[in-house]
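for the recovery benchmark. tokens below, seq after
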């Protein structure tokens, strides 16, 4: 390699180097470099989120940014009660689809682990029957608030798409669900 070509090659200056010019492989130096790389990667990801979703730095750090309802919650478009109602709706819709053997699009709302709601063979447990009754009752409450409730809930929560013209219907449906579930105990699947 000629002297001119050698000068054109860009080297990172922030890496500790051996006297020969090679990057140092000492553990302490390497760990500092890895930590710096993680910070740079995180900074790049957060700035991309900020630019893509039009958020502030602190909003872009939220774990809820990965799905539509979470972004609406972080931006302040949904109240905490509406956000909880959306999470409950996602759980009920998932249980309904599994119990009926339908293909389920896993919603991003439920951040915790999910258990299997039925064996998929057509038999439905008592717990699943309770959840299906909850699903029907919740859907009826949402439909009583607005006729487009099911479309709005399905589009935003289950399909993770923007609300568009269904935004007002989504607000009304989530308020109705929140009102229905206010004060009631949410039953989780018992350990078997």
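predicted aa per position
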């Amino acid at each position: 390699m000629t002297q001119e070509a050698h000068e054109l090659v860009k080297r990172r200056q922030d890496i500790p180097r051996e006297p020969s010019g090679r990057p140092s492989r000492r553990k302490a130096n390497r760990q500092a470099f890895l930590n710096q790389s993680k910070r740079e990667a995180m900074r790049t990801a957060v700035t991309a989120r900020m630019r893509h979703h039009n958020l502030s730095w602190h909003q872009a750090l939220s774990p809820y940014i990965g799905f539509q309802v979470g972004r609406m919650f972080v931006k302040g478009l949904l109240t905490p009660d509406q956000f909880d109602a959306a999470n409950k709706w996602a759980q009920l819709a998932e249980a309904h689809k599994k119990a009926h053997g339908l293909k389920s699009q896993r919603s991003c709302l439920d951040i915790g682990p999910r258990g299997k709601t039925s064996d998929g063979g057509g038999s439905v447990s008592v717990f699943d029957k309770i959840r299906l009754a909850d699903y029907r009752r919740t859907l009826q409450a949402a439909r009583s608030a607005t006729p487009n409730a099911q479309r709005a809930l399905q589009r935003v929560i289950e399909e993770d798409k923007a609300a568009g013209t269904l935004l007002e219907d989504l607000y009304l449906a989530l308020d109705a669900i929140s009102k229905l579930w206010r004060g009631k105990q949410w039953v989780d699947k018992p350990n078997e």
